Amino acid sequence: MLKTGNKTKSIENINFMVIDANSNLPFPNDYFDVAYTKKGPRDWYHEGNRIVKAGGIILGFYHAGSHGALRELFPGLYSQIPKPEANDILTELNLYGSGLTDIKVELLEEIEYLSTPEDVLIKKCFGQNQKLREIVWQECLQDVEEIFNKYATSKGLKIINYYHLLTAIAS
């Protein structure tokens, strides 16, 4: 993915890299105008503030849970979890004392349609090892198919995903 991104990018000064974000980033102070993380380390913002020019923008994007069909229709597969409030996100991401200003957390909603019963399990098992995926398929697919077929529309099974979009200004 990184190789393709770097080969096909439309803007020359964009580079896709793999970096250990749990240690100091390999960039000088005040190097970037914008920095973005998606599901990055929770304490990344201090380092982000270091590498972004004063007045630059820091963005973070975090999954905040799914709602709708998954949690309501598959309670044994998906447990109910409360959506965190913005202040909880600020604490969780260790933003207090980061030096960032104008910190805002916005809750975004995305409607998604899952096309097949297998998509329900793929979403549940994303990132899990092969053995666990095989067990989940064996034990759950038949029940998931039954529920999916009962509630799916012509577009598929409607679910709503929530995300937190964090924006802040580097100091």
From TrEMBL:
<protein>
    <recommendedName>
        <fullName>Methyltransferase type 11 domain-containing protein</fullName>
    </recommendedName>
</protein>
<dbReference type="InterPro" id="IPR029063">
    <property type="entry name" value="SAM-dependent_MTases_sf"/>
</dbReference>
